[in-house]
Design brief:
By secondary structure, the chain is mainly alpha-helical. It has helices at about 5-45, 55-65, 70-90, 100-115, 125-130, 140-145, 155-170, 175-195, 200-210.
Length: about 220
């Protein structure tokens, strides 16, 4: 076998290797495409709500009520009307007995769900209605039976708002040490505010305790 034949054989082997590699890539691409398709299908068919926050739900329904499609707008306005009745009752809670409050709220809840579960023939309406199938709807109305549960997560959003603003202004941290510092100092600030404790005093006393080999102060009460 001369040099030319050796070169041809080598090139043929390289071409075959490339073909095998391309085949592997094609299989991987196909697997990824199938996985993406499954995820998209599960996302469309999922009845679990991304959030059980009433404030977010109201914004979504208000958006539907403002659409130019009449059947969608009418449905959205009917839902908003029931939510208004529900919140009117919520604001009168102190004037009602606990039994009377729950009975009134359950009535408004039933009326709302009756409309919600009969959506018009529109993709957006049906997508929203799927969240309220079965027990999934109860997450939105848990505040009726559990007084410590708020109907919205606005309180939580207010708690993290300073952190979000700080991150936007400072562009975050550059290393693990910075991340740990931000996590801890923002936790201290938020918790002390919630407990009505002086932030500076807590940090000062914590530093003194550290250098004096004393027990650390606790944020848990």
């Amino acid at each position: 076998m001369d040099a030319k034949d050796i070169l041809i054989e080598k090139q043929a082997a390289e071409i075959q290797t490339l073909r095998d590699y391309i085949k592997i890539l094609e299989n991987k691409i196909q697997m990824l495409e199938e996985k993406i398709a499954r995820l998209e299908k599960n996302s469309r068919n999922s009845s679990k709500p991304p959030s059980s926050d009433m404030a977010h739900l109201i914004r979504e329904i208000r958006f539907l009520a403002e659409q130019t499609v009449k059947i969608l707008s009418r449905w959205g306005n009917e839902l908003l009307a029931w939510l208004k009745k529900l919140y009117d009752t919520l604001h009168r809670r102190e004037k009602l007995t606990e039994k009377g409050f729950r009975r009134a709220m359950e009535k408004k809840k039933t009326g709302f769900l009756r409309i919600m579960r009969r959506p018009p023939d529109h993709k957006q309406a049906k997508k929203l209605a799927r969240r309220f199938t079965g027990e999934a709807a109860e997450d939105y109305f848990r505040f009726i039976t559990e007084p410590n549960v708020e109907p919205t997560n606005n309180g939580t959003e207010r708690q993290i708002r300073p952190v979000v603003i700080d991150r936007r202004i400072t562009q975050g941290t550059r290393n693990q040490a910075g991340m740990r510092w931000c996590e801890r100092i923002w936790t201290v600030i938020a918790t002390c505010k919630k407990q009505g404790r002086n932030i500076f005093d807590f940090i000062h006393d914590s530093v003194i305790a550290h250098w004096s080999n004393k027990s650390y102060l606790s944020l848990i009460r």
